[in-house]
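Bug report

Summary: structure tokens for 3876_t:CDS:1 differ between web form and batch submission.
Environment: batch mode, default settings.
Steps: 1) Submit the sequence below via batch. 2) Compare with the web form result.

Sequence submitted:
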Amino acid sequence: MNVGHLKRVVKNKIGNVLKNINCYDLILWSVNVPTEGEDLETKIYAENIKEQYQVIDAINIALKNATINIYTLMPDDQMPFMERDTNQAITRIIRNIENHLKGSKSKADFDILVSGGAPGIGKTRFGQELFKHMENNQNDWVPSEWTDIQLKDLYLDFGNNCRLDSYDDELTPTVIIGLRIAYVFFIESKYNMKFETFRDQVWKHRDIFKISNVFNCIYDHLSQPNQQLFMFLHIDEFQLIDRWERDAVNERKMPVKQLFKEMINNLASFMLGPSSNIYVQAFLSGTAPQVVISAKESSRVSFGFVNCPQLSFKALLNIANHYAQKYDAEKFSCGTYKWMLCRPFLQLLEDTGGLPRALQYIFDVCFEIEVDRKKFFDDIYQQHFNTIFYNVKQHLQERYNIYEAIDKNEKLALELLFHSIYAIPVYRKTCLDLSDQDCTIENLERDTHIILNPCNDNSSEFTINMPFFFICLYNDKLKIIDFNLEETLRVQNSMHWELFVAYYDAFRTNLLVKRGKHTVRLGELYSGAYGTELAKNFEVRLKKVSVRRAQEQFPCLKLTEKDSAKPIPWEEGEDVIVNGGSAKWGDSFRVLESVQGDLFLSIHQAKYDYNSATYTLKDLFNEHIKNCESSAFNTTKQLFNQLADYRHLTIVFTTQPIYEIVPYDDCFIISRNNFEQYFGPVFSSRATFAFTKNINPNFSELQRMMECQPGVGDVTAENIIINRPYKSEDDFFKKHNRAKRGKEKHEHENPEKKLKLDFYPFNL
């Protein structure tokens, strides 16, 4: 025991009298007091003197034979920290400190910060970057009252270095947490000692490791008298506290400890008034927001949630450019990095769905393949991106173990996939498997790999977002289509739109069939499409379908498969058929049968070459009439009689917006402004590129440029390719006056048709 300990005890016991006096300013006089055998601690009511002394004493016992940890500091190669609002979190901390200095004792006046969400979304990184920002910008938040401050951060990881186990059954909540705080501060990074070993060494003295005693011990170790200690306590994987408690009660028959609630209450006491020399700001990260909400209801402590959304595509590009700059990647003469026109790499970035962990795996795999990272960027057009995709997919499987989750509950997996593909909103209490009431969204967020995005800023509804990598893993096990999805929608080679639409149509249909659906409304089969309510309510039977590419142009009597020359029995309705090249009747089609037995030909038509300002009802009507007339007049009598039994449905996919209400019961429109409603958040990026590639001078092929852009011949088209990239329409026409004159002439002669080009990836 030292004099400092004694001064603090005296101040704590008669704090009302000495509330404006620092304990270290006290002058203590030695007085002889007859104790008649009574302990001095009892005589002055200082029950904690012995405990405060023994915390450091017990730690020294544990370190008696410990070896110092010698490690090499590795270079920081973390991805740039983007699209995370630390300012909002710091504003909450400033408010906490202000209320602390005012002496507020109301728990509602203080926020414990929480970062919740899916694994790999960046929760832990947020806490690290938040403290780093505070440490480097103290003038922005440190109050004037704290003239002498020391900042310290502690990181407790319940998923790694500070796991809970059955030994904790015997301990009180404050000791469970206090032991781990002491270990992380005094032992973890300094000595070669695991937490379990440390706990064994101090077990005899375990009861003294109360949270308050440990923080007092840390203060004595770090600070000078009157110095303010600001402790940023980051508790990671906090959902494991709840899991440990459930196991202790249900499996080991232990009484309920309410560890999470008690931990929060103990930590909150270091924020509440009156003002003291130790201030603790807790930051929780984990996958169980409902645990926090429950604790708020029972403890009345406030929690401030910080948002970790999926990264936008713009952020993905900026992160990739960070590495390009770091490794001096090649640039075009305009200063743009050449990798930005590598379509397969762009698609890889989009396939992450903005999940930071998936993005990190992409760079890890890319830089493993080519150790010379500059060379990777310089040779980016020669990289094998299908292999990179496969390797990243395997890393994600190893990390998230999606196969095992599907094996445990296939019905649940189908519902998760269905809700993700169709972007169906859910609530946290929504149960996706009624045979298992534990399969609520909030439990799945805690225990699995789902990513929830709020439908809007104030909504309690969420959509389930999956990266395309996850969709491929699901398909591996569920066999929605009978081969690996990434082999069908290969990242290395861009797919023609009609083939993409056919495979997506088959995937959606087979997912419904796999879920046990036998019939479906057209409004669900073509969700988000513009059409009449009558047409949307047509109910058709479902069959599992395959995709087949036709050699001939339908309508024709004999339809054979392009590669095998096998007959295609199109009338059976078991195939989505991609029509032969340059067919005018439809780019792809399928047969549907209504529940009443009526037959439909669902004809898919792309309109990405007609770049008018809007797509009109006249355009739609003419397209439908063309299809009907082709079936009626451009066929033999035998085929005419056969096709007469089928009602024609025209589904137009267009890059043009439409502002009119579709009045025709035989037509649907899926335009670019509702792509995401039909293709969903996962497939919409691939769909957008498939539809806009030919009107994008950064990626369009020479022949398609000549077909799509007025006034562009082969010489101009070659110059367009040579002078890439183009960031905007002004940039493009400034470089190519002939194309500009052709555009102006075309629009003068066709005032209703205005050429509109796409400039992905620069048009964000």
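Above is the batch result. After comparison, the two runs are identical; trailing whitespace caused the diff. The two ends are 65 Å apart (CA to CA). Residues 313-400 form one domain.
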